C-alpha cells in the first residue's frame, strides 16, 4: 500500500501563489505516476497535472498550463504542485494520487483545500 498526505492548502488572493506538497510512504516504488487532481465545489473531480516518477515527463490540464508546475523530490518521496497566478476558478479541494502511467490511480490522499478570492 501507499499512503499520501497533502499539505500546503490555504486561502489566497487572486494572482497569488501556493505550493502544495504530497508526502508518500509505503510501497511508492510500485507506482509509475503521481498526479494532482482537484474538485471544485459542486463539481466533479478533474485532473490537474501528472508526472512520471521515472522519466520525469509531465502533463497538465489546459486550464493550468503555464501557471502550475508539478515536480518531485524522489529522495524525500514527495511531489509538489507549484501554483502561480491563481484564479478564483482554481478554488477546490486538491488531491494527490499515485498510480500507473495508463491513468489508473489506486492511492489517494485526504485532500488539501485551496481557496482563491
Beta fraction: over 45%
Succession of helices and strands: EEEEEEEEEEE
Broad structural category: mainly beta
Mean pLDDT: 95
Unreliable stretches covering 5 or more consecutive residues: none
Sheet with the most strands, sense and barrel status:
7 strands, mixed
Total count of helical runs of at least 4 residues: 0
Helix fraction by DSSP (H/I, runs of at least 4) = under 10%
User: What is the 3D form?
Assistant: globular
- Separation, N- and C-terminal Cα atoms: 37 Å
The total count of strands amounts to 11
Q: Radius of gyration from the CA trace?
A: 13 Å
Write a structural description:
The protein is an all-beta fold and about 120 residues long. The protein has strands at about 1-5, 10, 20-25, 35-40, 45-50, 60, 70-75, 80-85, 90-100, 105-110, 110-115. The strands form two sheets. Strands 2, 4, 5, 6, 9, 10 and 11 form a seven-stranded mixed β-sheet that branches. Strands 1-3-8-7 form a four-stranded antiparallel β-sheet, with no helix packed on it. It is globular. The mean pLDDT is about 95.
